[in-house]
Amino acid sequence: MIETITDYNAMDDDAFRTMVREFVEVNYPPELRFQIGQLPHAITCGWYAKLAERGWVAPAWPREYGGMGLNTTKRILMAEVFDVHGCSRYADNGVMMTGPLLIKFGSLTQREYFLPKILSGEHVWCQGYSEPNSGSDLASLRTKAVWNGEGWTLTGQKIWTSRANQAQWCHMLARTDNDSTKPQDGISYFVVPLDAPGVTVRPIRTLSMQEDFCEVFFDNVRVSADALVGAINKGWSISKALMGGERIFLGAAAQSFNALAKLRQIAKVVGCWGEPAFMERYARLAADLEDHNSLYEAGLEKVREGGELGLEGAMLKVHQTEMYKRIAALAVEIAGPYGGLSSSNQAVHEIQVASTFLASMSGTIYGGSSEVQRNILAKQVLHFP
Fold first, then answer.
1. DSSP state, residue 138
2. Is residue 246 flagged as an active site residue?
3. Residue 1 pLDDT > 80, yes or no?
4. Which one of 211, 215, 246, 322 is the catalytic residue?
């Protein structure tokens, strides 16, 4: 069924929330609820197709490009319903990054070709930013793109590229000017097919025995002139514009609330629920989580009123992800011999204790590591040198 509502933003918030909840309850596969980590596209593609059929794949895209056109408030409500129901993250890089990139900076030809294929799920995308020795210091990237008279030739390597082994396309940054005064000024943005000659994708197996991340090698990969997005040497400003709007979601407390509920379950199973020593630690975590949620709600209210989240986003991201790690670490500790199992076990009510802990570790890195976020806060809030 194709959605006929023309303006979701005009709906009452409760009515909108109810509509989304009813859709999720009917269409989201129960066996995929509250899964740890990113599930492969082959598993989540059915859910993607349901969203696409309803016209709900791209909540933030303008309606003229096939999106829902949601304002920030409605996007947050939709994300909260998904979180409460344990909806796994699908292959959304094309929706979250490539689509907004092309809508704002791409040519008409690029938009007409790529956007429908993102909405339908025909194209899965990955993001080529990080490189060996150029992760947090992204401006030092060394992958280069050279004009060859007809198009561009790319040479270099990307690493920690999520879903590259499932994707058909990569949107990426490459250096096009080695002589600029500032390293940020010599970077351009490209869209590159991963089946092009010279591209090699090598999965990286993580401690949780998953292959979410990959190395991607570009060995004299030739792409057409229209692989360039926006103006040459303006890739840095494009990437900054893309990353500005999602900070509020990285600070959402749902992840930690779910982990705390699992901790409570485990404590009751292993018999430490009610013991003073454990209850004191549990109470501290619960109180910290409520404090965080109050701060998050204040950030939401600021965004709802049209303000910018600003530096609060860095603070929310650090606090939420590190709190999630603390909760997961305590779960491993009290689970005893079951704490080292990556798979679920009936003894702890099918809770994947070790996998949850490993997932919590990655949260302090993606979206800007805790160390980088603290440096930002130290310089811009506390005015440290």
1. G
2. yes
3. no
4. 246
Q: What was the pLDDT predicted at 344? A: 56
Q: Which helix (H) or strand (E) holds 15?
A: helix 13-27
State the burial class of residue 162 (Cβ atoms within 10 Å of its Cβ: 0-12, 13-18, 19+). Answer: middle
CATH dotted code for 244-380: 1.20.140.10
Question: Where do the domains of the chain lie?
Answer: 8-90, 125-233, 244-380
Residue 157 carries which side chain, given as an amino acid letter?
A: Q
The DSSP string of 305-350 is TT---TTHHHHHHHHHHHHHHHHHHHHHHHHGGGGG-SS--GGGTT
Each residue's pLDDT tens digit, 164-217: 999 999 999 999 998 887 888 899 999 999 999 999 999 998 777 778 889 999
d(CA 247, CA 321): 12
Q: Is 67 helix (H, G, I), strand (E, B) or coil?
A: coil
Q: Is the pLDDT of residue 325 over 70?
A: yes
Distances (CA, A) of 83 to 78, 168, 226, 253, 317: 9, 28, 38, 10, 17
1 contacts 51 by C-beta, under 8 angstroms: no
Average the pLDDT over 208-237 and give the result. 92
For residue 368, give the nearest of 296, 314, 316 by alpha carbon.
Answer: 314
Q: What is the pTM of this model?
A: 0.82
277, 281, 284, 290 alpha-carbon torsion, rounded to 10°: -120
Q: How far apart are alpha carbons 168 and 194 in whole angstroms?
A: 5
Q: Could you tell me the fold of the domain covering 125-233?
A: Butyryl-CoA Dehydrogenase, subunit A; domain 2 (2.40.110)
| Residue 348: per-residue pLDDT | 53
d(CA 276, CA 301): 37
pLDDT at 361 (0 to 100)? 85
Q: What span, in angstroms and rounded, lies between the C-alpha atoms of 203 and 191?
A: 20
